[in-house]
Each structure stands twice: as C-alpha cells, then as structure tokens.
Amino acid sequence: MTAAVLPGTAHNGLARGRVELLQFIRDRTAVIFTFAFPAMLLLLFGTIFGDSYEDTGVSVSQVYTASMIAYGILSTGFITMGSGLAMDREDGTLKRLHGTPITATAYLLGKLILVLVLSVAEVTLLILVGVLVYDMPLPDASHWVVFGWLFLLSVIACTLCGIAVSALVKRARTAGAILNVPLVALQFISGVFIHPITQLPSWLITVASLFPVKWMSQGFRYVFLPDEMKVYEAAGQWELGRIALVLGAWCVIGLALCLVTFRWTEKDR
Amino acid sequence: MDVIEVRGLRKTYRGHDAVRGIDLSVPRGEVFALLGPNGAGKTTTVEILEGHRKRSGGEARVLGEDPGTAGRDWRARIGVVLQDADDAADLTVTEMVRHMAGFYPDPRPVAEVIDLVGLTEKSKARIRTLSGGQRRRVDVALGIVGRPELLFLDEPTTGFDPAARRQFWDLIRALATEGTTILLTTHYLEEAEALADRLAVLSGGVIVAEGTPATLGGRGAAGAKVSWRHEGVQHTEQVADPTELIRKLVAEDADLTTLTVTRPTLEDTYLTLIGDHR
Predict the structure, then answer these.
(1) Distance from the Cα of residue B168 to its chain's centroid
(2) Residues A78-117: pLDDT tens digits?
(3) Where are the domains positioned within chain A?
(4) What gap in Å lies between CA A58 and CA A188, rounded to an integer?
(5) Furthest-apart CA pair in chain A: how many Å?
(6) pTM
(7) What are phi and psi of B10, to 5 degrees?
(8) Cα–Cα distance, A212 to A246 (Å, whole number)
(9) Is the ipTM, as predicted for this complex, more than 0.90?
(10) Which residue blocks in chain A are alpha helix, DSSP H?
(11) Cβ B14–A92 below 8 Å, yes or no?
C-alpha cells in the first residue's frame, strides 16, 4: 500500500471556498439581498441628498459612494460570517466537518474566500453605480495602492469580528436581528450615513474611533475623493497611518476572539 | 487491542448524569449495536467516542487513541453518519460526496460510493430535493467515502421505508464483510437482530445487559412456550426444551393442528430489561 497523504489545510480551505461560493450563488434570495441592498441605499441617499460640498465640486452622492463601499464590506464580512456560522452550526455543517480530518483553519479559510469574492463583487458594483450614476472620477494609481491594503484589512477585520460575534448567536433565525444592532449603530456614528462626521458630538466620535467602521469609511473617502475633502474629516486629515494601525489592531483582536470563541459544536450543556 | 475500549465512562451535564459508568469492548470487524430508550445515553456515548463531546470521567480508547485529544490522522480513520443534519442543501449529491472525499488520503471513488448507497439515479439532484430516506443515504455515503476502519451509525434508518431499510442492511453487511468495525445505535430491535454480532442495552446511563442477539438478557436459556388446543381446551406449558413435550403429545395422539412454540423475541427481552431498570 502506498503511503497516502492527508490533504493539507490550504487544499481543504480552497475546496471549502469553492463549495461556499457554489452554495451562495445557488441561493438566489441571498444573492439579491446581499448585493442589491447597499446599492439601493446608495441610490436612495444619492437621490435624497443631491447637493454638493460648497466650493469643492464634490457631490454628496460621490461621498456616499465612498462611504457605502465601507458599508458593503462591513455587511458582507460581518453579516455573511456571523449568520453563516450560526447556520452551519445549526444545520450540521460544522458537526459533519468535525468528523473529518479538516482543520478549523481550513473551514474558516473557506469562509474568508467567500467573503473576499463577495466583497470584490459588491465593491465593484458600488464603484460602477458611483461612476455611471454620479460621475465619480476614478482615482490614480497611488490611491489604488491604498485601496488595496485598505480593502484587505477591512475584509479581514470584519470577517474575524463576524466569526467572533457568531458565538453570541444562539439560533440562526435571530442572527440577522442580533448582528444588525451593532452594524447599524456603528454606521450612524462612523460617518457612513451622516457626513461630515464633525456634526456628531465629540464623545460619540471618540466612541466611533474605537471601532473599525469609522476608519474604513474615512479611508475609502481618501481613495475616491479629491484631497481638499479632508477638511470634513474629524481630524481635518486623512490619517492613513492611523487607519492602518486601527484596522490592523482589529484584525489581531478579531483573530484572538475567534480562537477563543470558535466551537465545532454547541457547548456542552 | 480492540477498536473501541471503554472503562467506567461517565458524562455529567450540569449535575445530571447522562452516562454513569459504561464499559465496552468492540473488537476489529465486529458490528456492535447500542440499544436503549430515548435519553438512555446512547447518543452521548457515541458522541464522546466520535470526539464530539468531552467525557466527564473514565477511560476511552478508539483505534488506540483518546477520542478527546486525537488529531487529524485519527479522524481520517473514522467515519461518522450524522443523525439529523440538513446541510449542503444546495449542492448535488455528487458535488457533496466529491467535496468530502477530498479531505481523505485514500477515498473511495465518488461514483462507487453513490452506487453503494443506491443513489446513482439521484447523483445530479440537489440534496434539497431528496426525500428524507434519500437524504439519510447521502449521510451514509459521506460517512463511508473516506474508507473508515470504524464507522459510527447513530440511528441511521430512522425515516426509511421497509425496502430502503433492507437495502441499507445489505450495505452494512457488505461493509462489515470488508472488515469495517461498526458501532450502531438503533430503536429498531429487528435492525439490531439483523445486523449486530453483539449488542448492549443502555438504560438510565448504564448497560443493563450485553450479549449476542440470541443470548441477550438470558434469552437463550429462557426456554419456550408450547400451546395447543385439545378437545376444546387450551393448554399452555413453559418448558426448557420443547422436544420432549411434543414427542409426548404425539405419542398421546393429541390434536396438534393449533400447536405453537414461541420463544421470547428480542423485543420481549428488551422490554423486560428496560422495564426492570426504569
């Protein structure tokens, strides 16, 4: 008998990612709601708040496009992950996988692949709406470099936090309700729905600054808006270094929370 | 060394003792059935041996390792057939079997496994569209695709129609012939009788009887009940061996048109066993 080799974590993780994507695109309702919702919000906000920022020539809808990209990543990462894990715990996916030689890392890698692909599609859709409907100019190469790391850090931080929060979700049915509370609250205080963020009381800005969403939306505004728009930010600066630092820290915090809270099965009663 | 060795296994949930000191030994190649009413501790015991739950006390060795700490190599050698999963609803049978096969070092060919569980005609169907019994057969396929040395079957035929159950039994016998060790839990006594080399009855978290289907709970020594009707009078006698009595009746030229000889069924024995320990 030839010594058969146990397939590795990378191989299994890719296989999980493929199956996660396949299952996602076959659930048409999930596809429509995940993708259409942020785009619909963007079209609504853009239509309702049609004016522009004083003498900058930047329209409110362009600002919303940038901020909604942060929202798009947040909702795909956080909600897809948080409710997806609760669902997998409930329908036996996790229990089934735990009876096989797959590692937890490979399973989570599959989820991360799902979120990455969904986020790329989501962000592409939002940029398309921004460019086609609101004449948002596309940025130059150096801004795209920032976009690259900002996108990756945002996806990873949101995904890991989603996994960690799923530990609090007892039933998949209630996942949406539970996960949307922090999500919506953070968007209101983080300059996604309400911008300039300086309209908020300063203590609220301080609270928002502890979480990743404020930094994500600020970063995407840097990428897609002209430099003079920085005066509307809380610090009057784009603060790229701090954005990287806070998001990086949330990746570490999220990973630590995941390792502590991840369970293959429901906890023994 | 036996495939499963358990000494004094205990499991406590918040002060409630679900399993209260179980001893089990299952040698390689045996089909072993755990019987017992709901809440007797069957599923808890199986889940501890599968490595899905931590035990509160006692010793457990499965394929030579402690299931509470065993790693990926060990998991590649066991197969688990889940009792009530409804995952992967949007994948086809083939897609799901192929996906799971990819986790094992030496899986069975996908088409062969699907054929073994009799789902070839449904291989391209989404799992969502299958009937309950077909769904369970997918579970069996996923449990055996990695060529396990030890297969756990927790109430595998719940919801099967009689024909599907017979077909499933043939599959289990074929696996056992290949040398797969099988730990089975079931509610169906005829299933245990048809499949198991040995069985144990669990009640209230302890094993109340253990043996072969023919000898469980003193069934082999219980003798037989002989009944016949002679000249309008019903006669019934309980004897250790009916041969002598029947020979005597024939010699007496008794009317034997209604003669019956009954032994306690496995179900009678089982009900007595769990009744005694309730």
Answers:
(1) 12
(2) 888 888 888 898 888 999 999 999 988 899 899 999 999 9
(3) 9-262
(4) 21
(5) 77
(6) 0.85
(7) -135, 145
(8) 7
(9) no
(10) 9-26, 28-48, 60-74, 80-91, 93-98, 104-134, 141-166, 175-189, 202-209, 212-224, 240-261
(11) no
